[in-house]
Amino acid sequence: MSLKTFTLNNGQTIASLGFGTWELDKEEICVPAVTQALQTGYRVIDTAARYMNEAFVGKALTESGLKREDYHLTTKVWVTDFGYEQTLRAFDKSLKKLGLDYVDLYLLHWPVEGFRESWKALEKLQDEGLTKAIGVCNFEIDHLQALAASSNNKPVLNQVETHPLFQQRALLNYMNEQDILLEAWSPLGRGDATLLTNPVLQEIASAHGKDVGQVILRWHLQRGSLAIPRSSKPSRVASNFQIYDFELSDDQMAAINALDTNQRSAGDPKDPEWIAKLMSMPIPD
Ligand SMILES: NC(=O)c1ccc[n+]([C@@H]2O[C@H](COP(=O)([O-])OP(=O)(O)OC[C@H]3O[C@@H](n4cnc5c(N)ncnc54)[C@H](OP(=O)(O)O)[C@@H]3O)[C@@H](O)[C@H]2O)c1
């Protein structure tokens, strides 16, 4: 099984593993980590206006020597910039910070009020070629349905918290029916010890001569999801990429599927307190 790329509902292809950059907000940590990721072979890099590292990510991309068409850059509009005009302005700022002419994917960061107006701005940016594709994050089924009712443009993907302890099965099934790719954020459960020392995962890892992180990332791949693990440690940036040389059996996939506790480790898009907290955090200029 190769599974090196996924095909999006707009016909574009995307590498099936990416690199996350949340919390890599210091230049001396972010630039080397993204540089190493690109040298290792990651071609999908995920940032966001909210991560306050677009300039560092852009620096690593520009200095990598890679041709522009050889990497895929995602960024996101933050919730306090929702609304049509505000989103267009926020995109302009992101593009300047990144130092790029276009991005490959522009996402709505959370489903807060105003997302339909922002989506119209994303459609305009796509029409102008400033982003090659558009998508969403943290959308539940009803958010996706609401978007579909107001637009003919489907998101190519929905980036949501997903890992063996929180598997998003109902959402995944719905998105499979709709041909919307699931991109897994916190694919390693943020390095949570409960997950990484889980005996079922440890046993599967030792059967393949792999580590638990690699087994989890392989599980995401085999269920057809794009994981974007983050690490600031060179050894993990490298090891997390070594997931194409082994295959989990059906029994091993089933054993991991059975670990689901349906408990989020981060914010719930339906929780008004969480949304209010996000809305209270504008991005400083
Ligand atoms: N759209 C959204 O709302 C949203 C929300 C959250 C995240 N994201 C995106 O998704 C990306 C990934 O999610 P995340 O950063 O929250 O979590 P993650 O990738 O699941 O976990 C990162 C944490 O795990 C550790 N780690 C990495 N590889 C490991 C391994 N092989 N073994 C043990 N520990 C390991 C890292 O520590 P070291 O640095 O010490 O290796 C780091 O503390 C983010 O960086 C961001 O780009 C999007």
Automatic annotation (TrEMBL):
CDD domains: AKR_AKR1-5-like
InterPro entries, per database record: AKR, Aldo/ket_reductase_CS, NAD(P)_OxRdtase_dom_sf, NADP_OxRdtase_dom
Annotated catalytic residues: 51
Keyword Oxidoreductase: yes
SUPFAM superfamilies for this protein: NAD(P)-linked oxidoreductase
Keywords (A to Z) from UniProt: NADP, Oxidoreductase
Site positions (Lowers pKa of active site Tyr): 76
NADP is among the record's keywords: yes
Gene Ontology MF: a single term: oxidoreductase activity, acting on the CH-OH group of donors, NAD or NADP as acceptor
Residue ranges of domain NADP-dependent oxidoreductase in the record: 17-260
Residues reported to bind substrate: 109
Family (UniProt): Belongs to the aldo/keto reductase family.
PANTHER family with a match to the protein in the record: 2,5-DIKETO-D-GLUCONIC ACID REDUCTASE, NADP-DEPENDENT OXIDOREDUCTASE DOMAIN-CONTAINING PROTEIN
Protein name, as recorded: Putative oxidoreductase
